[in-house]
Write a structure and sequence with these properties.
Helix content is about 45%, strand content about 20%. The radius of gyration is 29 Å and the shape is elongated. It has 2 domains: about 100 residues, no CATH class; about 130 residues, no CATH class. Helix 1 runs antiparallel to helix 2 and helix 6 crosses helix 8. By secondary structure, the protein is α+β, with helices and mostly antiparallel strands.
Length: about 270
């Protein structure tokens, strides 16, 4: 899974370079004069660079520093032409490698068999989809509610502590992302915490936690929230990797667009089938 993720990152990097070249105008420039196309040559003499226009056959023309625009454009053009060739070749190799790895995944051998046969098979190891299903079906005991606490229920039927948590839970449900509400988690210092939402990252085989801090203008609440976040970090659960945090105050409510961005970035395609 780590290899696939690294290949995806590298593919993204190459495609970003390709888009940059497509939007650049310098890379398509050629210097033409007297029906001939000229390229740029560079040599170093006594520690100084000298630049020449070369027609590809025999004629050279010296370029002075006053003609730096020609030097700049032709240097950039040569760079982008070489870069395009390299990027195109690497993308072809990378796509082939990705297809080869995905095609030969040992999980696929089991998953592509008929469901009627699957129930009689003992696979060499649980597939990532079986692990996901086991995680979803594993029972847990949540934190519980005070007798006088207001009753708020999500569209999934579980009781939550605030309207903002209901908004979050309903969004996860609408996007088909399974979650666990206030599932206990033991940190490295043996302390038990209850993340607001817990998800299963199918590709990386780990949990992702979402904390919503809803009263950040309350000093006592804010201090507890910061201590809790520090506890996550000290347990190796880092913000932006396995930990997602949203905030609000009495004057600034939960921002739905921010939630959507975080869901698309960290959960969609990773925590749902």
């Amino acid at each position: 899974m780590g290899l696939i993720e690294e290949l995806q990152k590298e593919r993204g990097r190459l495609e970003k370079a390709k888009k940059w070249m497509e939007s650049s105008k310098k890379g398509t420039k050629n210097y033409k004069k007297n029906e001939r196309e000229w390229s740029l040559q560079c040599s170093t003499m006594n520690g100084k660079n000298r630049y020449y226009l070369y027609d590809g056959e025999s004629e050279k023309k010296y370029l002075s520093q006053k003609e730096c625009k020609i030097i700049r454009d032709l240097s950039q053009s040569e760079y982008e032409k070489r870069l395009k060739k390299c990027v195109d070749q690497e993308l072809v190799r990378l796509i082939r490698l990705q297809k080869c790895i995905m095609k030969n995944s040992i999980d696929d051998v089991y998953e592509k068999m008929h469901p009627g046969k699957q129930k009689y098979i003992q696979p060499v190891e649980p597939s990532k989809y079986q692990i996901f299903e086991d995680w979803k079906n594993r029972n847990y005991q949540g934190k519980g509610f005070a007798p006088d606490a207001v009753e708020i229920y999500s569209n999934n039927g579980e009781r939550v502590r605030s309207k903002s948590e209901k908004i979050l839970a309903d969004m996860f449900l609408s996007k088909g992302i399974p979650y666990k509400y206030e599932c206990p988690l033991e940190l490295r210092d043996r302390r038990i915490v209850y993340p607001d939402f817990t998800f299963w990252d199918i590709e990386n085989q780990r949990e992702i936690y979402w904390e919503h801090d809803g009263r950040m203008d309350d000093p006592e609440y804010a201090e507890k929230a910061v201590r809790k976040i520090d506890g996550y970090v000290q347990s190796g659960i880092l913000l932006g990797e396995q930990l997602i945090i949203t905030y609000e105050t009495s004057g600034y409510p939960l921002n739905g667009r921010v939630v959507e961005i975080l869901v698309e970035k960290h959960l969609l395609g990773r925590c749902n089938l």
